[in-house]
Amino acid sequence: MFLAIRKKNVLSQLIINKMERNQILNEINEIFKDVLDNDEILINETTKASDIDEWDSLSHIQLVVAIEKQFKIKFSSSEIREWKDVGEMITSIQSK
Amino acid sequence: MEKGSIFTHEFHLSNEVYSLFLEAFKDKNPLHTDDSFAQSKGFEMRVMHGNILNGFVSYFIGECLPTKNVIIQKQEIQFHLPVYVNSKLRFEAKIEEFYESVNSYEFKFFFENESKKKVAKGKIQIGILK
Questions:
Q1: What are the backbone dihedrals phi and psi of residue B120, each rounded to the nearest 5 degrees, phi first?
Q2: Using one digit for the tens of pLDDT, what is the confidence trace for A43-81?
Q3: What CATH number has the domain spanning A2-94?
Q4: How many CB atoms lie within 10 A of CB B112?
């Protein structure tokens, strides 16, 4: 009985976590469209800089600044250096 | 340089600056070169090119900050009042934010004329080169 309740709670937490990540993904997708000036952009958690032509080193700076402003958070330089894809970006945002 | 720091500088929009801008960029639109035309549009005399002020912003970033290791990443400006030749402009810029993650500063700036009226204002983002 206790184990079943615990499993249900873990499952609920996973669903909430997934919903939250989807919500963040949608918000940063809008930021990508705006900063990279391309309404066609559709990112997912595995999207990398090499997947989007406009995502170069200078636009990356503007993306980071826009995300910090939108979510009212601050990243560290070491933190953003470790990002390999959008999913890791979302994990950073979620951790704040 | 830290959030809240304020920098000021005085600029003189001299006839020499105006003439060199005209010579360099060839924008001889009558609003900028013909007093009668400018007066017919409601201005006192020929109006200085707004982008001369962007040149002053460039000077401020390149020459007036405590470091020369700078690069402009983003700039926006709004023009509110006309500026005429031989105006003396007071420029003020304040650091609004520092983004440690990308080593960038965001400034808000304005220019005011001798009557203390804001003639232009804007934002500028600079990166610090390593």
A1: -160, 155
A2: 999 999 999 999 999 999 999 999 999 999 999 999 999
A3: 1.10.1200.10
A4: 17
SS (H, E, C) A19-38: HHHHHHHHHHHHHHHHHCCC
ipTM of predicted complex: 0.81
Question: Which chain A residue's Cα is nearest to B128?
Answer: A61
State the architecture of B6-128 in CATH terms.
Roll (3.10)
Residue A75, by phi and psi: left (phi above 0), alpha (psi -120 to 50) or beta?
Answer: beta
Contact, B107 vs B76, CB < 8 A?
no
Per-domain boundaries in chain B:
6-128
Which pTM does this prediction carry?
0.86
Substitution target in B70, B71, B75, B101 with the highest count of A β-carbons within 10 Å is B101
